[in-house]
Write a structure and sequence with these properties.
The chain is an alpha+beta fold. A three-stranded antiparallel beta sheet has the order 1-2-3, with helices on one face. It is globular.
Length: 138
C-alpha cells in the first residue's frame, strides 16, 4: 500500500536508499552535467543522515523561525544578557540554526570543511541543489 507520493522535476534527480531500507531520499539538481550522478547521491546521503527541515532559509516556515528566535532570547535572558543585545545575538543563533537545519547550508558530512552548496559547486560551477525529499519508515 502506498501512503504517499513525492515527485521532483529537474534536469537531474538522484536517489539514495539507506541500509535497512528505512530511509530514502531524492535530490534534484539544476543540470545533468558530468559528476551530477555522484553529487546527487552524496547530497541524498547527506539528507538521509542529517534530516534537514528545508532546502534553504526560504523553505523554513516563519513560525519555526519565530519560535527559534524566542527560544534563543529566553536562553540569553537566563544567561543574564542585556535586553539591548538580544536581537543581535538571536540573529546569530538563527544563522546557526539555518546552517544546521537547511540542506544547502549544512556542513558537507564527507569532509566537514565546506557547505553542501559549496561541495556541489566544486563538482560543476553551474550546479545547484534545487530540491529534496526525505522519506522515513517507522
Amino acid at each position: 500500500e502506498i501512503g504517499g507520493f513525492e515527485r521532483l522535476e529537474a534536469p537531474f534527480v538522484g536517489s539514495y536508499i539507506h541500509a535497512g531500507n528505512k530511509i530514502a531520499t531524492l535530490v534534484s539538481l539544476s543540470a545533468a552535467v558530468e559528476g551530477a550522478a555522484e553529487a546527487a547521491k552524496n547530497v541524498a546521503m547527506q539528507a538521509a543522515a542529517m534530516n534537514p527541515i528545508a532546502l534553504n532559509e526560504d523553505g523554513v516556515d516563519a513560525t519555526i523561525i519565530e519560535k527559534e528566535i524566542e527560544i534563543a532570547k529566553d536562553q540569553l535572558r537566563q544567561e543574564g544578557k542585556p535586553e539591548a543585545m538580544l536581537d543581535n545575538i538571536a540573529k546569530g543563533k538563527i544563522k546557526r540554526f539555518f546552517k544546521d537545519n537547511t540542506l544547502v547550508n549544512q556542513a558537507y558530512i564527507k569532509d566537514g570543511k565546506q557547505s553542501v552548496s559549496a561541495y556541489v559547486k566544486s563538482v560543476h560551477a553551474d550546479l545547484t541543489v534545487t530540491g529534496f525529499k526525505r522519506l522515513a519508515l517507522g
